[in-house]
Amino acid sequence: MPVNLKPVDVAVVGLGAAGGVAVLPLVRAGLKVAGIEAGTWMDPHKDFHPDEIHNNRRHGVTTVPKVQREIPTVRANPAETARQGAASPMMNAIGGTSIHYWAQSWRLKPWDFQARSETIRRYGAGAIPQGSTLEDWPLTYQDLEPFYDTIEHEVGVSGKAGNLQGQIDPRGNIFEGPRSREYPMPPLRGSGFTDHMAETAKKLGWHPFAPPAAINSQTYQGRSGCVYHGYCSAGGCHVSAKGSTAVTTIPAALKTKNLTIFDNAQVTRIVAGNDGKVTGVLYLRNGKEYFQPAKAVLLGSYVFENSRLLLLSKSKAYPRGLSNNHGQVGRHYFAHYDSWAGNSMKALFPFDINIWYGLPAQGACVDDFADDSFDHAGLGFIGGTSMHVYTEVHPIAAAEADRFGKAPAWGSGWKKYVRENASRVAQCYLQTSTLPYESGYLDLDDQVRDPLGDPVCRVTTGGAKENEVRAGRYAQTKMEQWFREAGAISVSKGNITVAGVTTHTYGGTRMGDNPETNVTDKWGFSHEAPNLGLIGGSVFGTSGARNPTLTIQALAWRTAEHLAKNWKSIV
Amino acid sequence: MLPHTEPSEISRRALLSATAFVPLSALLATAQPTPALPAAQTKALSAFVDRLIPVDELGPGALDAGVMNYIDRALAGVYANRKAGLLEGLEALDAYSQRENGSVFSDLTVPQRDAVITAVEAGAAAGFVNSAGFFAAVRSLTMEGMFGDPFYGGNRNFAGWDLIRYPGPRLAVGPPEQAMKVELKPVRISARGGEHAR
Question: How far apart are the first and last CA of chain B?
């Protein structure tokens, strides 16, 4: 029998990028919150090192290996046997993957929220890709704008406005939606190379800008500015310049005394009563089972675990899994067509570009070929791709890298090549807006189980999609043009296919007005269990052409605030 | 097989209490690392990584840089789960060398070794579960040993970082250190400070 704990108002499952933000509006409204997290605290002084082997090769920045014990299996279609993929790129700790992420903090575009109706309006219904389950989001960019603004200021985002209340400023991204306020900090500085790329983009008639990041460009709320030391990717920040929730919203929530963190606690089930409302969560801590009663539950455990926990949590009211009486849990799943999907490129320059230091959020971006920034007539796809060149390369990765067919992989010939060229290779990050399809979904694997005996999540990708592959290839031609104009002598292109287990996955508990095709309503609350909220990329209906975290956080804040403001009617 | 023990992991207290019962020399002997791989496979692996990054006019090779030391420590610890696959590959390497050239890999001439590696890399060497996969695994370990932080036992005297002109870990980096075409004076330090394990 589990140990029954003292009831709380809200149990938040997972204190990562989403849950770590959601706790703050709840505790500020005076609600008593239990933050239940599988990992624990990390110490910036002790745990974060400029050490490629620790961070990037051995995935050492984590506190417990929970995500590695339950790596999803992946298959293209139901005829295949799903195989467990490589190590999960996510991590467990208070702060979650916001500790080691790139911290690129984008707003989606107005178009992303209304891609279906906007596509039909501009190109006709025939332009919606076949097999896609694309719907408009149940909210618009304007609805989310105040929450984007809140997160940018609470967490601290560096950047330059390109559209301030309709006023276009070419120093920022002229294609962005209108924002009510300037960023709280100026953008991160460029490097010699990224400045060179920005100048080159201007020569091509494009509109480059410094990308927004939840990384301090100067001291902000008592935390240091970035020191550009080159170990940001998969590494925690030793000066806390990266705005992980562990150093921003979670400490702010703790100050109110209304948040109690239960660390090293793995949630195994969400419990629901016969009336269909959730009553709390079961978790394991040091081998002992506890029941945390709560009047409401917010689930923020990343895309795979959000769907898995719901499917595992069967009850009388929900025989097919919690909030799954309409069979929508796990549906509309998709993975971003970014570098995880082979949508990548590298370029060799005939001079040292020196990108050893810096960070992935230090860069030059071009949005001219993203979203609906351009006319798609005759192109055969909808959506588009953001293009981002950046700094930070580590020595092992540089030595190991592909050689553009110019040298062998080993021996004296390789030594000669790598000595000359290790500091001459540029990387870019391409993110193509991605849609949900009928053929992409999550369910429980029928073979592979985690050490607790529960089935792991099974990903059925549905295979690579023509629309996204075309959009990615189109961007690759533009990216090649950009690299070559900047002086590159060789360019290599990744072969675009569908991604498996990555940091950029979406859906499974999609948000929408229609309960027949969506798990949550426009506030992020279950259509079926009214006091269960879903937070994270699992509620997204489209990906946009950019990193999801700021949108995840704006939505998480909005869901939590909605709960606090409508407490009596929801619980 | 004994667990791999770092000298630093033996606490001073354990040393003091243990010395009451055993001679210090015996105690130190137990602190010597047990190689993760048997002698024959160690020999084959050593000869292999020596050809991946040979010593030449551009400077030290993998062996001088302590790559074998790195691999040995990694296999005895965090990469213990890779050992069986590596052993299998190294046995296949010697068997293939025997069949093709009449000797185990480490006894071949340099051109013979290079021809064997070329076949292994291409996935064309018979007798392996996956010879290209074996090549990739050894190359990956070699790269980590050559270019990783010296804390882990390789990259001795920063030979790897010097080879690729990596200017070393810096705690804070200013705009001049991020200019293009700039020659930076290398910072020859480990990110783990003075805590170099062998």
Answer: 21
* pLDDT tens digits, one per residue of B24-81: 444 444 444 568 899 999 999 999 999 999 999 999 999 999 999 999 999 999 999 9
- So what's the pLDDT on residue B33? 56
Contacts 24+ apart (CB under 8 A), B121-126: B121/A409, B121/A410, B125/B92, B125/B93, B125/B96, B126/B96, B126/B99
CA dihedral B181, B184, B190, B191 (to 10 degrees): -60
CB–CB contact A422 B164 (8 Å): yes
Task: Write down the pLDDT at residue B134.
Answer: 98
Question: Which residues, in sequence order, are bridge partners of residue A83?
Answer: A74
Instruction: Provide the phi-psi class of A358: left if phi over 0, else alpha when psi is between -120 and 50, else beta.
Output: left
Contacts of A229 in chain B (CB under 8 A): 169-173
Work out how many domains chain B is built from and give that number.
2
Q: Is position A33 within any domain?
A: yes
Residue tagged 């292994």 (tokens): B120
Output the pLDDT for position B194. 60
Instruction: Give residue B34's pLDDT.
Output: 67
- Sign of the torsion angle spanned by Cα atoms A262, A265, A267, A272: negative
Closest CA to A14 of A570, A537, A548, A551: A537
- Contact of A406 with A490, CB cutoff 8 Å: yes
What residue ranges of chain A have pLDDT lower than 70? none
B177 touches chain A (CB under 8 A): yes
Q: Are residues B157 and B85 in the same domain?
A: yes
Q: Give the pLDDT band of residue B2 (cuts 50, 70, 90).
A: very low
Structure confidence at residue B192 as a pLDDT band (50, 70, 90): confident
A400/B182 CB distance under 8 A = no
pLDDT band at B193 (very low <50, low <70, confident <90, very high): confident
Partner-chain residue, chosen from A53, A353, A410, that has the shortest CB–CB distance to B152 = A53
Q: Does residue A418 form part of some domain? A: yes
User: How would you classify the pairing of strands A167-168 and A363-366?
Assistant: unpaired
Phi first, then psi: give them for residue A167, nearest 5 degrees.
-85, 115
pLDDT recorded at residue A86: 82
Strand A259-262 with A33-36, pairing:
parallel
Range of the domain at B21: 1-34
Q: What is the mean pLDDT of residues B9-36?
A: 44
pLDDT-derived band at B23 (thresholds 50, 70, 90) equals: very low
Give the list of residues 6+ apart from residue B53 with CB closer than 8 angstroms, or none: A410, A414, A415, B61, B62, B65, B67, B142, B146
Structure tokens at A408: 């062998």
CB A11 within 8 A of CB A36: yes
Task: Tell me if chain B has a CB within 8 Å of the CB of A59.
Answer: no
The reply to whether B24 and B69 lie within a common domain is: no
Both B102 and B30 in one domain: the answer is no
Report the distance separating Cα A305 and Cα B60, nearest Å: 48
Q: What is the DSSP letter of A56?
A: I
Question: Within 13 Å and on the Cβ side, how many CA atoms surround B127?
Answer: 17
B52 to chain A nearest CA, in Å? 5
